[in-house]
Amino acid sequence: MVTVRRSLWHEPRPVDAPPVARLDRLLVGGFAAAALVEGVVRPDLAWRPLVTVLALALMPVLLCRRDRPLLAALVGWGVAGLLSVLQLTAHTGELGLYSMTAVLVLLHSLVRWGSGREMVVGAAFVTVVVALGMYASSAGWADVFGGSVLLLLFVALAAVFRYRADLWHRQQREIRSQERVALARELHDIVAHHVSAIAVQAQAGGVVAGVQPEKAAEVLAAIESEASRTLTEMRSMVRVLREEEAVASSPQRGVADLPALARADTTPTVEVSLDGSLTRLARPVDAALYRLAQESLTNAVRHARSATRVAIDVRREGDAVRLRVSDDGRTESGPAPEPGFGLLGMAERAQLLGGSLSAGPGPEGGWVVEAVLPVEAPA
């Protein structure tokens, strides 16, 4: 209970309070017109001019009920409390207009848009005013019960709307967080792969330039081509992020694009093997297989020592697809290194699709990455 009280006391204001709009002005105008008409058609109302003026003066407070919910509630319910005090001291009949029910809107706004401190202070003030009003009107138990239920109903509705809005914002933040993680994963896969290829070509160019100068131009052309491909993919990703319509015109790469990763003119050589029916894969699975293979190849090029060959093998096994990327590099003795962002991103891709991923030294040396994904992505 103490924790709940502290949590309520430190509750901040909602950040999505909408500005004053046309509907708010119509609400104020409607209540003001109702107060004016009521002041004219109720000749039996005691102190009618004063009560009508107070009711009309109260209505503009509705416009600031979201920006200053506590102040609006104190002013509105303060007017109601003043009428109760006048009723007690002057020993008159009921002084309130039916249009004064506008204070219920202020109570709703206090709970919906106020901070925890404002809600506690405002609720205490409203409770005192309500108790004073019931005492002044000599309300019976039935009236007390009915009035209390009405107030609690407005408070409960405001609390429900506040909770639903907070839940929606939490979901939006979670979606944005997931999108940031996915974007980081995509950027890592694209940039790391192409930059690694550029680095390998540059290293080869340094060797070739001294032995076969005529081939230096070919190496530079390959570097330029790889850099251009990197820029194209980066621009495509930025276009997808900026323009929703670009998603349809920028399809992701899939298993059918894996043969483009094969290379026989570099070290290590890259061999790609596709086996089984791989043409009707779910789009998320198809794209994930390509990214997993691409990142595994990048890791092999960057980290495999003395590797001369990298094999990418994709095969259909019933309702699953198995991807295996292996190299023939030298395996380091000692404890396994901590997984980096690349492996973490790969594991996340596989898990999000209901699959699994393993990476470690192969039985015949080198490094092996295996991923098993379902053919159909989970809903």
From TrEMBL:
<keyword id="KW-0902">Two-component regulatory system</keyword>
<keyword id="KW-0812">Transmembrane</keyword>
<dbReference type="GO" id="GO:0016301">
    <property type="term" value="F:kinase activity"/>
</dbReference>
<feature type="transmembrane region" description="Helical">
    <location>
        <begin position="45"/>
        <end position="63"/>
    </location>
</feature>
<keyword id="KW-0067">ATP-binding</keyword>
<keyword id="KW-0808">Transferase</keyword>
<feature type="domain" description="Signal transduction histidine kinase subgroup 3 dimerisation and phosphoacceptor">
    <location>
        <begin position="179"/>
        <end position="244"/>
    </location>
</feature>
<keyword id="KW-0597">Phosphoprotein</keyword>
<dbReference type="InterPro" id="IPR050482">
    <property type="entry name" value="Sensor_HK_TwoCompSys"/>
</dbReference>
<dbReference type="InterPro" id="IPR003594">
    <property type="entry name" value="HATPase_dom"/>
</dbReference>
<keyword id="KW-0418">Kinase</keyword>
<protein>
    <recommendedName>
        <fullName>histidine kinase</fullName>
        <ecNumber>2.7.13.3</ecNumber>
    </recommendedName>
</protein>
<keyword id="KW-0472">Membrane</keyword>
<dbReference type="InterPro" id="IPR036890">
    <property type="entry name" value="HATPase_C_sf"/>
</dbReference>
<dbReference type="Pfam" id="PF02518">
    <property type="entry name" value="HATPase_c"/>
</dbReference>
<dbReference type="InterPro" id="IPR011712">
    <property type="entry name" value="Sig_transdc_His_kin_sub3_dim/P"/>
</dbReference>
<feature type="transmembrane region" description="Helical">
    <location>
        <begin position="95"/>
        <end position="113"/>
    </location>
</feature>
<feature type="transmembrane region" description="Helical">
    <location>
        <begin position="70"/>
        <end position="89"/>
    </location>
</feature>
<feature type="transmembrane region" description="Helical">
    <location>
        <begin position="144"/>
        <end position="163"/>
    </location>
</feature>
<feature type="domain" description="Histidine kinase/HSP90-like ATPase">
    <location>
        <begin position="288"/>
        <end position="376"/>
    </location>
</feature>
<keyword id="KW-1133">Transmembrane helix</keyword>
<dbReference type="Pfam" id="PF07730">
    <property type="entry name" value="HisKA_3"/>
</dbReference>
<keyword id="KW-0547">Nucleotide-binding</keyword>
<feature type="transmembrane region" description="Helical">
    <location>
        <begin position="120"/>
        <end position="138"/>
    </location>
</feature>
